[in-house]
């Protein structure tokens, strides 16, 4: 009987210590956010589209250095393309495959998009997907 009470005390003490250890771990890791609503994704995506300089080459409606967002999305919808994979450098271009143009865009994938999270990339793709609802002609 005595052995069991010692064992229980031992287990309780160990349990407390373990609790403290896991608390420390959670303190140093970034807590997970609740998932963003569709509107919040579009909002954040739109903001990142400016912050990451995309907007300087991609106007919503007209061609600038790169194709317009509407043109890109028409082709991506037609061909069932995956913007996130393209922006991660894991899918080939399908809009403009001219080598010099592809190189300009590739520099952004290697530069401005280097330290972006998957979630942020998804918000950019969501913004692009809904761009015509936000900017009707
Ligand atoms: C310096 C100019 C420039 C900037 C800045 C730029 N792009 Fe591009 N982008 C281009 C050019 C040129 C093309 C056409 C070549 C191509 O289609 O790959 C292109 C093509 C694309 C395409 C279509 C790719 C395909 O399948 O052909 C997507 C999607 C895209 N850009 C997204 C973005 C996003 C998102 C950003 C911001 C992070 C961005 N671009 C920033 C010049 C730019």
UniProtKB/TrEMBL annotation:
This is Cytochrome C. Keywords: Heme, Iron, Metal-binding. It holds the Pfam family Cytochrom_C. It comes from the Bacteria. Residues 40-132 form the Cytochrome c domain. GO terms for molecular function: electron transfer activity; heme binding; metal ion binding.
């Amino acid at each position: 009987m005595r052995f069991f009470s010692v064992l229980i005390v031992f287990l309780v003490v160990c349990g407390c210590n373990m609790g403290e250890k896991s608390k420390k771990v959670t303190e140093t890791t970034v807590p997970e956010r609740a998932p963003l609503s569709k509107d919040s994704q579009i909002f954040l995506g739109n903001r990142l589209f400016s912050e990451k300089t995309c907007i300087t080459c991609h106007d919503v409606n007209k061609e600038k250095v790169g194709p317009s967002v509407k043109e890109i999305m028409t082709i991506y919808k037609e061909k069932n393309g995956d913007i996130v994979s393209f922006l991660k450098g894991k899918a080939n271009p399908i809009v403009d495959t001219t080598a010099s143009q592809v190189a300009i865009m590739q520099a952004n994938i290697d530069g401005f998009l280097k330290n972006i999270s998957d979630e942020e990339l998804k918000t950019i793709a969501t913004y692009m997907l809904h761009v015509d609802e936000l900017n009707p002609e």
